[in-house]
Amino acid sequence: MKRIFPGPGRCAAFTGKLLLMIWLGLRAGSAWCQETTATPTNNPEADKAWREVYKASQPPFPPAAWQTNQPSREEVAKFNIAALLKGADLAKIFYTKYPAHPKAAQAHKKEYELLNIAAQQFGDSSQTARLAALEAERLNDPKLGEDERFKLRLGQTQRLLSGLPATQDELLKSADALQKDFPKREEVYRLMMSAAAEAEGAQAKVLLQMIVDGPAPDDVKTMAKGMLERQDALGKPVAIQFTALDGRAVDIAQLKGKVVLIDFWATWCGPCVGEVPHVKETYEKLHDKGFEIVGLSFDESKDALETFVKEKGMAWPQYFDGKGWQNKFGQQFGINSIPTMWLVDKQGNLRDMNARDGLEERVAKLLAE
Q1: pTM for this model (two decimals)
Q2: From the centroid of its chain, how far is CA 318?
Q3: What does the pLDDT read at residue 40?
Q4: CATH number at 241-367
């Protein structure tokens, strides 16, 4: 059984993206994957305790029931958070009881890293005060190196990213401060790209402009410029016209009077597939009230797409050109991560570029206008 769990995220063409990835798919550099052996000391009891800390800080095997019954996102998060907090608690017990042990400093780091994963990747807010106290303690250490200081500051900003949209204002301030203090660290700009992809309206534009105006890597700056152009599309008609996979003629301009979901997705994208039940449920509830969906597939295999659509009973039209990330509409609109979901209102104007969360509520609101 592989230790890989489904989780919230996106499939990204932008490979430098720091967040919104499946947590246990990231092996190198993970707090759950560092260090394979413990150096013996003259304190067998402490060495045994350290081995328990190390064991608890490794990804646990998922429940056997998940082999046949796919868990919900909430179940995955609950399971992972429990394991992460257990590892963090054991690390704290270890360094408190054995402060002189060679692994005490590592235990301090593990506690913070595990708590931070729980907060960033799985949305756990129960340990916010504990995390803040650990960060303050380490940031106030005059012996803390520049790299470690940067990682802590970056972690604080990443946590705000995971709390969007409620943390938008704080995130903007934190990203601005991070850029000013560490202007040459490209991780800052990649994080800001992630934030811009999740933020809304004016906040996203501010983040993107900061990237364009700063010393960001060329690939990041190019994408930021494309996203700025895409932001300008808000409130305007969307020019999408094609012949669907099943032969239907599709023209967004001809769907005025309807609320339309434009779904950029692919069958090979795990997070996209995970959204299908939610999208289908919303379609079945609201289709008779004027809700339509247009799928824009980033698949390269026509057979795979046709088979998937048929098996899942996806009644809406699908665009397919077999070009993957070079998809015609993906290129036109600068799409660098999927799933990406847009909503077009009854007047035919693009109203929402972040419709993935709370899709049904967003659609219902536009239908009521």
Answers
A1: 0.53
A2: 25
A3: 66
A4: 3.40.30.10
